[in-house]
Design goal:
By secondary structure, the chain is of the alpha+beta class. It contains eight helices and eight strands; from the N terminus they run H-E-E-E-H-E-H-H-E-H-E-H-E-E-H-H. It has an eight-stranded mixed β-sheet. Strand 7 and strand 8 form a beta hairpin.
Length: 261
């Protein structure tokens, strides 16, 4: 029997002090003050982001979509919106030359894909999320099945990645469609992409935001009562009024935590 390799010695863990429940609660309350300040700062930053200028996208781009999307399999940037007003595009590295090919996409991009929340909640806020890569569709379909991903994933066929700063590294671009035109509204990459994946973080980088009444948004932006649009991901019905029981439950919850705050 061979001996297993000895594990490297680890430095002694420098533990924080162990205190009473009362002292721990006092420390938690001190931390909570800072966490609430951070939350308010994040909300203020999102409000400022909603007021950023836009740039028109007049160049035509072509993508390849999954079989059955349409008769040709071709898709324009407008097609990626899937009929909605807002589009979030994550450039994932899955193509020849990328570490992991052809069995896997980039490890970092794969972690991003693993964290994406159910898309029904974004769709309910008039927002579409897609991934794009240079891999052929057959490889993308195979990868999605292997990894259990349901994200719409298109193949880049032109200069889209270079034009939107994602030819050398991953990144998330946000687009808005208005009166038949497309505008680029926001871009985030590097460590800014770490927070992506959750519904709220995605909505916070869109021009319309979460679209709830408490948000500081420009005049005319769509807003609905806080929480009332939330639903089970298999139960969204476009144009449906909020369920009255959920209205009562969410009102009670909001009242309770605002009293605590």
């Amino acid at each position: 029997m061979t001996k297993s390799a000895a594990k490297p010695a680890q430095a002694a863990l420098q533990m924080p002090p162990v205190v009473s429940q009362e002292a721990w609660e006092a420390a938690r309350q001190e931390m909570l003050v800072k966490e609430k300040a951070n939350t308010r700062a994040r909300d203020a930053l999102a409000a400022e982001r909603r007021r950023m200028p836009w740039v028109a996208v007049d160049k035509a781009y072509a993508f390849e979509g999954p079989a059955g999307q349409n008769s040709t399999g071709k898709a324009s940037l407008a097609d990626l919106f899937d009929g909605r007003r807002q589009l979030i595009v994550y450039r994932a590295f899955f193509e020849p030359g990328v570490f992991g090919w052809p069995d896997h996409a980039c490890r970092g991009c794969s972690m991003v894909a693993d964290q994406v929340a159910h898309l029904a909640h974004l769709n309910a806020r008039d927002t579409t999320l897609v991934f794009v890569s240079r891999a052929p569709q057959a490889d993308i379909v195979r990868l999605k099945k292997h990894m259990g991903w349901d994200i719409p994933w298109f193949t880049i066929t032109d200069e889209f990645d270079a034009d939107f700063s994602v030819d050398q590294w991953h990144g998330t671009n946000v687009f808005f469609r208005h009166n038949g035109r497309i505008f680029r509204t926001y871009f985030v990459n590097n460590r800014g992409d770490e927070q992506m994946g959750g519904t709220w973080n995605y909505l916070d980088i869109t021009p319309l935001g979460r679209q709830e009444l408490w948000e500081d948004s420009p005049a005319g932006y769509p807003q609905t009562p806080t929480y009332k649009w939330w639903n089970w991901h298999d139960s969204y019905v476009e144009g449906a009024a909020p369920d009255q029981r959920w209205v009562e439950v969410s009102d009670a919850g909001e009242k309770a935590f605002r009293q605590q705050g």
